[in-house]
Amino acid sequence: MQAHRQIAIFVATLFSAYSLDSSAQMKIMSYDTPSYIELQSSEFLVYENETNALVTVVRTGDFRRSASVDYQVTESSATSGVDFKPKGGTLVFAAGESFKIISIPVIHDEEAEENETIQVLLQNAGSNVMITRAEATLIIRDVPPLPRLQIAVVGQKLRLSWSATAGNCVLERSHPATNQWETVMAAPVEEEGLFFVEEPMNEEMFLYRLRS
Q1: Percent of the chain with pLDDT over 90
Q2: 84 burial class (0-12, 13-18, 19+ CB within 10 angstroms)?
């Protein structure tokens, strides 16, 4: 019985030492980390013959709730409606979502020109959102048009030629029955401003094309 009494006294004393006055106010520390939203890079690249440029927007910080930010795609040296299709809107990140993709349609033309640029802007951050990189440059890299492939019969061979000013092009051929393209392995010869390759003529007919 003595041992039980000692334990009871110890527990009662311990409870009394840590008991709270009913009039005391409990203060709960509250702090809120914002969502940080930014363009993943200050510079993005797309080739003119691609359908869309993809620009990544990332979020760090607080993932517990949704977050939003507006974006705008504007002209720089590229011309809206000629080199790209204008675009803007609002990106809404769901709870737990860490990135969004802005898809910008690119317009391909057949003119040889310098590389051109577009500006991508983030603005109007939503509640409890901070923008940490608001601007990026999108470079549209020009893709020169492929030269015209000319085919002529020279003796018992086919001569395939194209302009030497077109840069590095790959000559490919395909049998109509398979529709599978393969590289013509013969190295092109340069002569009088033209590249040419000669292929033996035989009963099999091939399709030929140039690829950049």
Answers
A1: 41
A2: buried
d(CA 199, CA 212): 20
Q: Count Cβ neighbours within 10 Å for each residue of 56-70 and write b for 16 or more, e otherwise.
A: ebbbeeebeeebebe
| Parallel, antiparallel or unpaired: strands 194-200 and 157-163 | antiparallel
Q: What is the pLDDT of residues 92-140, one digit of tens each?
A: 999 999 999 999 999 887 777 789 999 999 999 999 999 999 999 999 9
Beta bridge partners of 137: 43, 119
Sign of CA dihedral 83, 72, 94, 30: positive
Task: Give per-residue burial for 132-157: e unless 16+ CB within 10 Å, then b.
Answer: eeeebbbbbebebebbeeeeeeeeee
Nearest-CA neighbor of 121 among 45, 57, 47, 36? 57
What strands lie across the sheet with 181-183, from one edge to the other? Answer: 181-183, 170-174, 207-211
**Which pTM was predicted?**
0.59
Task: State how far the alpha carbon of 116 is from the alpha carbons of 15, 20, 83, in Å.
Answer: 75, 70, 8
How far apart are the C-alpha atoms of 170 and 47, rounded to whole Å? 18
pLDDT for 8? 42
